[in-house]
Amino acid sequence: MDNLKEKKLVELKEIAKDLGIESISKYRKDELIKLIEQENINKDEQKKEDEENDLGEKFDCDGILEILPDGYGFLRTEMYESGDDDIYVPPKQIKMFRLKTGDYIRGIAREKHARDKFAPLIYVSDVNGIKPGVAFNRPMFEDLTPIYPNEKISLETGKNHFSERIIDFISPIGRGQRGLIVSQPKAGKTTLIKDIERSIEKNYDDIKIIVLLIDERPEEVTDFIRYVNEYRDPNNELMRTEVAASTFDKPPQSHIDMAEMVLERAKRFVEEKKDVVILLDSITRLARAYNIMTPQSGRTLSGGLDPLALVGPKQFFGAARNIEGGGSLSILATALVDTGSRMDDMIFEEFKGTGNMEIHLDRRLADRRIFPAINIEKSSTRREDLLLTEKELEAVVKLRKSNMSNAESIVELIDWMKRTESNKQFIDLINKSY
């Protein structure tokens, strides 16, 4: 300190320049001395850290980054949940490469020393499959321009896969869709989600799928994990379908943390102009978790629902969008109705106008063993003209104008599908019949 004070300003500027301090001309002498001292301290700490890293054993690591409020982060090695094998990511690495929560990072870590709780990350190899320098210049998800879905995700995979064929026709899904699957208990919503997941996986190897299960039974989670990835390349880790789950025996905060991590993960893909589909079961239970954990506003809606509790779920659901210039985030979420809980009905009412696609399942059809139990009258997609051809639109209009009841409509629809090999033949048959 004394040596620096004795030096002239010109000499201090030369020292600062050698240390890599920028804009040195704007600093006074005392400010420059403080900056030089701080830079020397940083270099000493870096040297000490490098020496420690050189001493420890190194190993390859990967995981999904979660950045905590204090500025440091962890690579979550057990999908999205914290564990003993997580890798510590120092703030310096996060700032250097502009890393974000949800990034899939591969790099090199050092074995933890006696005083370390976690092994630290010392080198970043790639971020979401690309070089760190390229990832540095990513746009912010919030700055991207949302537009209506204009590219259809075709679910049709075979003659006897009626659920997928009916959705393609009655309530088509586009890249960037924000859809609700409205269901009473035991109407077949879980089976429908599985059918949608399998169809997208089979037809589109460029779409990333994340299945998010909130407040589900543990055995159902296991069933989903074993069900997915039949058509995915086992060597392409980035594009394999992920199942993220927070089961009913975990606290509500766990449900919220899981949902927020999944959303951040999906946003990172969209920022790189990739297409993502999140299948959420269910948004009702996610809203219930927020209702428990959100500080009370003092106002209560019918059923004991706090208005502030809906902010988090709406931010999640509202993130679904098609991006102008490439990339999309589609969210298909199940909403529970007629459960006997007034709160569940209120949650659905609050979300009813926020989506741009709805599929309604009818318990009465399911009780009569009519599957898929899709209510044709209530199911639809906004701006379906952007997703369907003129022939398809014509057939949809003709079917909706028919005087048949919902049960008659779905039974006749399935009967026609049994007589045709594809939706193209099916649409031609409808246009000829009406």
Features:
single chain, 434 residues, alpha/beta, OB fold (Dihydrolipoamide Acetyltransferase, E2P), Rossmann fold, 3 domains, 9-stranded mixed sheet, 20% strand, elongated, ATP-binding, helicase, ATP-dependent activity, acting on RNA, EC 3.6.4.-
Write up what this structure looks like:
This protein has helices at 2-6, 9-19, 29-55, 91-97, 132-135, 162-170, 189-203, 218-227, 252-271, 283-293, 311-318, 342-351, 363-367, 390-401, 406-418, 423-433; strands spanning 58-67, 73-76, 87-89, 104-110, 119-127, 146-147, 152-153, 173-174, 178-183, 207-216, 242-247, 275-281, 321-323, 328-336, 357-360, 380-381. With 434 residues, it is an alpha/beta fold. It folds into three domains: 2-55, no CATH class; 58-138, OB fold (Dihydrolipoamide Acetyltransferase, E2P) (Beta Barrel); 146-433, Rossmann fold (3-Layer(aba) Sandwich), CATH 3.40.50. Strands 6, 9, 10, 11, 12, 13, 14, 15 and 16 form a nine-stranded mixed sheet that branches. Helix 2 runs parallel beside helix 3 (29-55) and helix 9 (252-271) crosses helix 10 (283-293). It is elongated, with a radius of gyration of 27 Å. The mean pLDDT is 88.
The CATH topology of the largest domain turns out to be Rossmann fold
In what range is the share of β-strand residues? 15-25%
Mean pLDDT value: 88
Tell me the span between the first and last alpha carbons: 92 Å
Please report the first level of CATH classification, the CATH class of the largest domain: Alpha Beta
Tally of alpha and pi helices: 16
- Could you name the CATH homologous superfamily of the largest domain? P-loop containing nucleotide triphosphate hydrolases
Q: What is the overall silhouette? A: elongated
DSSP strand tally: 16
**Fraction of helical residues:** 40-55%
Identify the CATH architecture of the largest domain. Answer: 3-Layer(aba) Sandwich
What value does the Rg take, in angstroms?
27 Å
| Number of structural domains | 3
Main beta sheet:
9 strands, mixed
Identify low-pLDDT runs: none
Organism: Anaerococcus prevotii ACS-065-V-Col13
Protein name: Transcription termination factor Rho
Function: Facilitates transcription termination by a mechanism that involves Rho binding to the nascent RNA, activation of Rho's RNA-dependent ATPase activity, and release of the mRNA from the DNA template.
GO molecular function: ATP binding; ATP-dependent activity, acting on RNA; helicase activity; hydrolase activity; RNA binding
